Amino acid sequence: MDFIQKDIQDYSARHTAAANDLLEKIDRETHVNVLRPRMLSGHVQGRILSMLSHMIRPHRILEIGTYTGYSALCMAEGLQGDGELITIDVNEELEPIVEGYFQVSPYADQLKYLIGNAMDLIPTIEKGFDLVFIDADKVNYLNYYELILPKMNAGGFIIADNILWSGKVTTTPKSNDKDTLALIEFNKKVHEDTRVENVLLAVRDGLMILRVL
Ligand SMILES: C[S@@+](CC[C@H](N)C(=O)[O-])C[C@H]1O[C@@H](n2cnc3c(N)ncnc32)[C@H](O)[C@@H]1O
């Protein structure tokens, strides 16, 4: 994930608005207490998600892959007053921690946190999303995309994380490297899909931004 020069990353972080106290606490506590803290979006990507959400002004947001709740709370910053953010994660062990963070956030009443496999839960969720963030198991990215697309409002946005996969998408992966193969296929398919317009942002581990036509 650190394929962008460290001094450039540091400069970018120093010239990006600070995250609020709750987000800094989640970042800190995730790094101390939770396995695989690199999965957390972090300061600069979190500010990008917040900025995009402010630009989109969504009424309904769906996130696939809550982890410790950092990115959900960043996107919630742009949520409209009557809006809701649904976030899904299969890992029930993190539930008490995440619930604790959500309850003290200013968006507590707007957050709906679902525990379960996103492949099972997405079909049960009402349609009408303005913003979706895909950030869970890479092998299912295309499946999530196809499940979500019919539930998007026209002009809505889908953002998918880690689509550069530490640069591995530019290599020829081994046949057992299922994550890299899945991401290469995802990037190719959405780029060729006439139902969306896309831009690949080469920040952090890569964000694919899709506008639903
Ligand atoms: C990269 S982390 C999410 C990071 C978070 N969005 C952030 O930016 O701070 C990926 C999460 O996806 C969850 N996950 C993996 N497979 C899943 C599935 N099939 N359904 C729901 N969640 C899943 C994992 O439990 C993990 O918490």
From TrEMBL:
InterPro entries this protein is in? Cation-dep_OMT, SAM-dependent_MTases_sf, SAM_O-MeTrfase
Arranged from A to Z, the UniProt key words for this protein are: Methyltransferase, S-adenosyl-L-methionine, Transferase
CDD domains to which the protein is assigned, alphabetical? AdoMet_MTases (cd02440)
EC number(s): the record gives 2.1.1.-
Q: What class of enzyme is it?
A: transferase
Annotated GO molecular function terms are: methyltransferase activity
Pfam families per the UniProt record, alphabetical: Methyltransf_3 (PF01596)
- Biological process (GO) annotations? methylation
Please name the PANTHER family in this protein's record. Answer: CAFFEOYL-COA O-METHYLTRANSFERASE 3-RELATED, O-METHYLTRANSFERASE-RELATED
Name of the featured protein: Class I SAM-dependent methyltransferase
Origin species: Reichenbachiella carrageenanivorans
